[in-house]
Amino acid sequence: MNTKYFGDITIHEDEIITFPTGVFGFEDNTQYVLLSFKDDTEESSEDFLMCLQSVEDSDLALIVMNPYYIQPNYDPYQVSDKIFAEISLGEETKHTVTCVAVIREDFKQSTINLKCPIFINLENNLAKQIILEDTNYSMRHPIAEKEV
């Protein structure tokens, strides 16, 4: 497949993540792959930034990151169990949480959307982006303001 940041790559069907209701603003695009910006020679165990690349639209690629890197006490789980049931996500289900980031040329201006996390069920590759209604999380939390 052709990608926005990586050119032509080969992906396997088991790498495709399906968003049954799409991602906010891109509801018609439901299939994505999560790609690393890291060079294979880098030794870090975790990626700081990842690319959520649409399978259906090569120009649609969202930068996502682990919100716990910015805010270790982040708690996106204060939502109805019904929302998690939509992607078969239970308490014991292996999953990951990412948030969309906007990276600016002046990195100090870069932000992360903590208000709308993305939950990815790693067992069935289903994902859902949700809105955390009753929280003080921001859609434009400065990445440079990392909590310690």
From TrEMBL:
Q: Name one GO cellular component term.
A: cytoplasm
Localization, per the record, is: Cytoplasm
Give the record's GO biological process terms.
bacterial-type flagellum assembly; regulation of translation
- The lineage's top-level taxon is Bacteria
Q: Which UniProt keywords apply?
A: Bacterial flagellum biogenesis, Cell projection, Chaperone, Cilium, Cytoplasm, Flagellum, Translation regulation
Q: Could you tell me which InterPro entries the record lists for this protein?
A: Flagellar_assembly_factor_FliW, Flagellar_assmbl_FliW_dom_sf
The record's similarity note reads: Belongs to the FliW family.
Q: Which HAMAP family match?
A: FliW
Assembly mode: Interacts with translational regulator CsrA and flagellin(s).
Query: What is this protein's function?
Result: Acts as an anti-CsrA protein, binds CsrA and prevents it from repressing translation of its target genes, one of which is flagellin. Binds to flagellin and participates in the assembly of the flagellum.
Protein name stated in the entry: Flagellar assembly factor FliW
Gene name per UniProt: fliW
